[in-house]
């Protein structure tokens, strides 16, 4: 499984639609300060279901929508789609390719799609449990996160091991069953 492409429109500094194509291997994103490198990482977290504005370096969820510049008006929505190659079926779905999309409007209205079909955040989260990719996963290591892991609470550190060991989905299912 690998990241194939990332399409961003109206998200943070990306007013125009931009389609990043990745290949199986290493990609580096370089650019001057403030040019939007970290915003690319934020777009990945966001499309995978990040619910915390603070994690995305904003104060509320609408902050991810392009807020305009001196010569460009703000936009009304932000949209991000991520496409992963799933030929090895590491993600537990029949598709060879998985595209997850998220869109939010200024009104607060928002939607998620899985291969073009409207779905719930929960459906997206379930696909990524135990893959290390979800928003709780360790595939995105943000600035300061290593420090947090090393000095964090043992319970929080344990979550990382649960994800790596592939038992998160069982824990979630157990918790849901106990609640019923
Ligand atoms: P550095 O090298 O300093 O880490 P960077 O390339 O990672 O920089 P980012 O933090 O990704 O840069 O981008 C910051 C830029 O994104 C700022 O110029 C900021 O104004 C812009 N930005 C953030 N949110 C929005 C938004 N909602 N609308 C328009 N621009 C935004
Ligand atoms: Mg940065």
UniProtKB/TrEMBL annotation:
Homodimer. Contains large globular domains required for ATP hydrolysis at each terminus and a third globular domain forming a flexible hinge near the middle of the molecule. These domains are separated by coiled-coil structures. Transmembrane segments: none annotated. This is Chromosome partition protein Smc. The chain holds residues 1 to 180 of 1186 of the full protein. ATP binds at residues 32-39. The gene is smc. It is found in: Cytoplasm. Belongs to the SMC family. Required for chromosome condensation and partitioning. It comes from Hominisplanchenecus faecis.
């Amino acid at each position: 499984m690998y990241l194939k492409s990332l399409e961003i429109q109206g998200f943070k500094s990306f007013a125009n639609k931009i389609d990043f194509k990745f290949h199986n291997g290493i990609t580096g994103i370089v650019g001057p300060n403030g040019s939007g490198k970290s915003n690319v990482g934020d777009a990945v977290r966001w499309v995978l279901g990040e619910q915390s504005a603070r994690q995305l370096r904003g104060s509320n969820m609408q902050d991810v929508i392009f807020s305009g510049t001196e010569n460009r008006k703000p936009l009304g929505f932000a949209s991000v789609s991520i496409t992963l190659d799933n030929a090895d079926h590491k993600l537990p779905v029949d598709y060879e390719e998985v595209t997850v999309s998220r869109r939010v409007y200024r009104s607060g209205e928002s939607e998620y799609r899985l291969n073009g079909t409207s779905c719930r955040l929960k459906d997206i989260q379930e696909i990524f449990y135990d893959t290390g990719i979800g928003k709780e996963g360790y595939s995105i290591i943000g600035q300061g996160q290593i420090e947090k892991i090393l000095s964090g609470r043992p319970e929080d550190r344990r979550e990382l091991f649960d994800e790596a060991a592939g038992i998160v989905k069982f824990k979630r299912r157990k918790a849901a069953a106990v609640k019923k």
